[in-house]
Amino acid sequence: MAGGAQFKPADTEPRYEVLHTDCAASDVVGHVTSRWGIWVLISLQRNDLRFYELRESIQGISEKMLAQSLRALVQDGLIWRQVEPTTPPQVTYGLTEFGRDVSEPLVELFDRITRRLVPPDGK
């Protein structure tokens, strides 16, 4: 049929088996949805932040857990890390294009949840 819509079969692209423990995508999903990973991504959605600014913006996170979460998210390609050669070194983190793509629905989810938790009278 000339001029008709072109459809490609759904199974032409490789798919990951995220429910299998040996799937690479499963590791990334685990890091994104970890207790602190989601808050790191949401915090970086607005601005690039230094380590201490991230620690201050995420209440309850320890330096150790923040460092572990950042390390995993950098390895996954979701965030970038820039070190300024100062004393002490200033380390800044921000979202990569992949990180922005992944974090947008997380921010939307968070916004939907918080809108539902606001009492109807706004108090």
UniProtKB/TrEMBL annotation:
SUPFAM superfamilies: Winged helix' DNA-binding domain. Residues 23-121 form the HTH hxlR-type domain. It holds the Pfam family HxlR. One of its GO terms (molecular function) is DNA binding. InterPro entries: HTH_HxlR, WH-like_DNA-bd_sf, WH_DNA-bd_sf. Keywords: DNA-binding, Transcription, Transcription regulation. This is DNA-binding HxlR family transcriptional regulator. It comes from Amycolatopsis roodepoortensis. The lineage of its organism: Bacteria, Bacillati, Actinomycetota, Actinomycetes, Pseudonocardiales.
